[in-house]
């Protein structure tokens, strides 16, 4: 998901693909499309790629798939305290609106994430979140042959993951623990601040340009 905030223009492509798959508007992506957008990646995870599990598995039939196991109640609680706060935030909605009006590079972020929220939870995460979680797990298990699928919990450490991928276990053998609730919220707050700064700078530049234009036009009229 972080890549959606780094490569913000990709969000327009993802949004178009989401509309094609779920609304029947446009063409559903295939291998060539994924190669163009994701060809620089060794792996993909999280949103929005997870919404195209079927298409990605079909496009890359030799790829290995890792299904990260989580307790559904803890996951639901975590999302409620992080991403759901953003999805229901007036600030986030305002940033999205002004990004479109000001034609900011990240103007596709908000509509893409709103589309994801609609598809996955029908805009009602408290009621539909857990069912959507379970449905995704069932879908991946049905799509991927057993020899290409690893169901993995981070508490298992490096050994099963490295064995599945054919890679050596790191010497320090310490499993990273990132994306804690506090870390995610700090990252989201920082993102909001940077967006507001960028939009403020764009508004300032527009005002300066308008003022200069008015000054020049007024001067020409006086000549």
From TrEMBL:
It comes from the Eukaryota. It holds the Pfam family Sulfotransfer_4. Gene3D superfamilies: P-loop containing nucleotide triphosphate hydrolases. InterPro entries: P-loop_NTPase, Sulfotransfer_4. This is NAD dependent epimerase/dehydratase. It comes from Beauveria brongniartii RCEF 3172.
């Amino acid at each position: 998901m972080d890549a959606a905030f780094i490569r913000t223009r990709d969000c327009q492509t993802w949004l178009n693909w989401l509309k094609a798959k779920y609304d029947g508007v446009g063409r559903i992506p295939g291998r060539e499309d994924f190669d163009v957008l994701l060809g620089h990646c060794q792996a993909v995870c999280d949103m929005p790629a997870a919404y195209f599990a079927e298409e990605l598995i079909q496009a890359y039939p030799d790829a290995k798939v890792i299904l990260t196991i989580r307790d559904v109640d803890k996951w639901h609680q975590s999302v409620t305290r992080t991403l759901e706060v953003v999805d229901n935030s007036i600030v986030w909605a305002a940033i999205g609106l002004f990004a479109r009006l000001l034609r900011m590079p990240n103007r596709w972020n908000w509509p893409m994430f709103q589309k994801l929220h609609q598809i996955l939870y029908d805009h009602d995460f408290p009621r539909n979140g857990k069912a959507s979680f379970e449905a995704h797990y069932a879908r991946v298990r049905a799509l991927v042959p057993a020899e290409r699928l690893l169901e993995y919990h981070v508490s298992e450490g490096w050994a099963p993951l490295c064995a599945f991928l054919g890679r050596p276990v790191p010497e320090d053998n310490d499993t990273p623990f990132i994306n804690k609730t506090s870390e995610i919220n700090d990252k989201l707050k920082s993102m909001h601040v940077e967006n507001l700064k960028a939009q403020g700078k764009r508004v300032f530049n527009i005002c300066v340009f308008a003022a200069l234009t008015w000054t020049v036009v007024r001067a020409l009229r006086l000549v």
